[in-house]
Design brief:
The complex is a heterodimer of chains A (275) and B (335). Chain A has a domain of 170 residues: MetI-like (MetI-like fold). Chain A is 75% helix and 0% strand. In chain A, helix 3 crosses helix 6, helix 3 packs across helix 10 and helix 6 packs across helix 8. The longest helix of chain A has 36 residues. Chain B is mostly helical and 335 residues long. In chain B, strands 1-2 form a two-stranded antiparallel ribbon. In chain B, strand 1 and strand 2 form a beta hairpin. Chain B is globular, with a radius of gyration of 26 Å. About 4% of the residues of chain B have low confidence. Classes of the chains: A mainly alpha (275), B mainly alpha (335). At the A-B interface, helix 1, helix 3, helix 4, helix 5 and helix 6 of A face helix 1, helix 3, helix 4, helix 5 and helix 8 of B.
């Protein structure tokens, strides 16, 4: 097969373009001076790498109090939003898959539209709702907003999984005398579980990363990790800590993905062994 | 009969949680936004009486310029993304299957770090004392020097012209020193392309993966040059992927808020920033609502055109592509 030299070079350049900032996130986490954000002091001498930001994160230094607080809030909200949107999303996907009525076409439109709406429109419309109902913004409004934009992604992921689902399995379960609840929990749910987990992971990453919608509905003083970081200025003293924390998160997610790959491979081999 | 009533009841029961949630927190808020645009605003930041004053005021101040600028920048970003994504998707699709999965995965991997942190990394890189700024200066100096040289070569030599030319160069050099990438449109376009590029590569790649490359061989055998075959055979063959890619870039680009906020300074204020300013800082809620409505229109018009166009295409093919893209983009690591 003929391979185009030009396209391969372009691919290499684009990969470099995508990875340079990530690399710098890792490198910037080791900057000793958080004010100048440079590895060189005022006389131009190299100051070396410093692990003090990592030490501060692990010892729970008071200086990073607000940053860490926002980080834990992000994790809490992402976790809760994932649980709620998975529950709602699973029922929605089941309904969309099973019935084809006018109600479901309305339902489908309602689920699909948030996917093509820019974040900022979801943010402002929720803010308007809270203003119109004179609700005070805070933890709960952030949670509601996150569930709202996560649900659609969860539904789409599970629906994709449902397309491969063999509906005869349900009929078989009914024929064997199982009730609808039993069938759902013992037949349909286990088969759908990978789809639900994938949807949940997507919801978690979307929620923990969201800054636009949150900055509309967070109210005064409640900051998630992204809104806290975006409110930091270039000359905030703790900037390297943000990069160090992101490096840790990156390592954690890479480990998680690697682990899931290993488990999947192990299961495949086990299945092969059985055959 | 009784069975169908029971089934209807079950359908409502299963549909209700998501239907109610999205009605309450998505559809109704959207209607509230629309309703607020037909109100005036009060001095203390509230919503006034029913009137058309908001829509009338929308024509007057600098809003049309901002809307136009947002659309122009979105087009620029989309064009760059597609231009870069096409050769990349082509290169990936031509790789052996094992490598395809690895490279496609590594394109999505940067998304495992926080978006805001990546933008912040760019902000640090583009800082006026940073190395990228130095490169940019060198480039600008070279450009002005080239201009001056070309001009000098073309104008007949007259008394003092050499001097003028020199002054021209120094003047431009001073201009160049003042031109920073940070807080300018260049930074916004650059980082937007960086952020949205994977969303352009993925749909084009999923379309290219199914493309029959023997067609290109055939074209070459019939005497077509490489680029001609790419343009006439490959691009029409993956057209649906390109349409998806355009939408996946154009829509977030229109709604862009964080990137211009953090990197655009006062030079690059887009609709998103204006909405935030009006809603959160000036407390002019009707104006914010009207701008949001305008943004929704500029998203739904291209979306509608694309939908209409896609409807004419083979429906089954489309579905398969979308599912494959969704799987690739969502599942990421899980297989």
């Amino acid at each position: 097969m003929k391979r185009s030299f030009f396209s391969v070079v372009m691919l290499a350049l684009v990969l470099a373009f995508l990875y340079v900032p990530i690399l710098l996130v890792v490198v910037y986490g080791f900057i000793p001076n958080g004010i100048s954000m440079s590895f060189f002091d005022s006389t131009g001498h190299f100051t070396g790498f410093s692990g003090k930001w990592y030490a501060m994160i692990f010892t729970g230094n008071m200086r990073l109090g607000a940053l860490m607080q926002s980080f834990w809030l992000s994790l809490t909200i992402a976790g809760l939003a994932t649980l709620i949107s998975c529950a709602i999303g699973t029922t929605a996907a089941l309904a969309l898959h099973k019935w084809k009525s006018r109600l479901q076409s309305l339902h489908h439109a309602l689920v699909y539209t948030p996917l093509i709406m820019p974040d900022i429109l979801i943010g402002i419309s929720l803010l308007m709702l809270f203003v119109a109902c004179s609700v005070d913004c805070g933890f709960w409004t952030i949670l509601i907003a996150h569930v709202t934009f996560c649900v659609s992604y969860v539904v789409m992921t599970i629906l994709a999984r449902l397309q491969d689902f063999d509906d005869r399995l349900i009929e078989a379960a009914y024929d064997l005398g199982a009730g609808p609840w039993y069938t759902f929990f013992h037949v349909q749910l286990p088969i759908l579980l990978p789809g639900i987990v994938a949807g949940g992971l997507l919801a978690f990453t979307l929620s923990i990363d969201d800054v636009v919608i949150t900055s509309f509905v967070n109210g005064a003083g409640t900051n998630t990790f992204p809104t806290y970081v975006s409110s930091m200025t270039k000359h905030s003293r703790n900037l390297p800590a943000v990069f160090a924390l992101s490096t840790l998160m990156l390592l954690f997610t890479c480990a998680l993905v690697g682990l899931s790959k290993l488990i999947a491979r192990g299961q495949q081999q086990k299945a092969k062994g059985k055959q | 009969m009784k069975d169908s009533v029971k089934s209807k009841k079950a359908e409502w029961l299963v549909t209700l949680p998501s239907l109610a949630w999205l009605m309450l927190f998505f559809a109704i808020p959207a209607l509230i936004v629309l309703a607020f645009t037909f109100h005036g605003h009060t001095a203390n930041g509230g919503v006034g009486e029913w009137s058309l004053s908001t829509w009338r005021e929308l024509v007057d101040p600098d809003y049309p310029t901002i809307v136009w600028k947002t659309i122009r920048i979105s087009f620029e970003v989309t064009a760059w993304c597609i231009l870069l994504a096409l050769p990349c998707a082509y290169a990936i699709a031509k790789m052996p299957k094992r490598w395809q999965a690895i490279v496609a995965g590594s394109i999505m991997l940067p998304f495992w770090t926080s978006f805001v942190v990546r933008v912040f990394a760019w902000k640090t890189m583009l800082h006026p004392d940073g190395w990228l700024q130095t490169c940019y200066h060198a480039y600008l100096h070279f450009k002005y020097w080239l201009f001056a040289w070309v001009q000098g070569a073309h104008t007949p030599v007259a008394a003092g012209s050499g001097n003028d030319c020199l002054i021209g160069i120094t003047g431009c050099a001073i201009d160049a020193a003042k031109t920073t990438i940070l807080d300018s449109e260049v930074a916004v376009v650059l980082v937007s392309v960086y952020s949205f590029l994977p969303f352009a590569i993925m749909p084009i790649y999923t379309a290219a993966e199914k493309f029959d490359f023997s067609l290109m061989e055939a074209a070459r055998d019939l005497g077509a040059k490489n680029f001609y075959a790419f343009r006439k055979i490959f691009i029409p063959g993956i057209w649906q992927g390109i349409v998806s890619a355009v939408l996946m870039v154009f829509i977030p680009a229109i709604g862009s808020y964080v990137i211009p906020q953090m990197l655009g300074g006062t030079d690059c204020i887009l609709i998103g920033n204006k909405i935030f300013m009006r809603a959160m800082q000036n407390r002019n809620i009707p104006h914010a609502s009207a701008l949001a409505t305008l943004m929704a229109v500029s998203v739904f018009v291209p979306m509608g055109i694309a939908m209409w166009w896609k409807k004419r295409q083979n429906a089954r093919d489309r579905k398969r592509l979308e599912v494959r893209t969704a799987q690739l983009m969502t599942a990421g690591g899980l297989s």
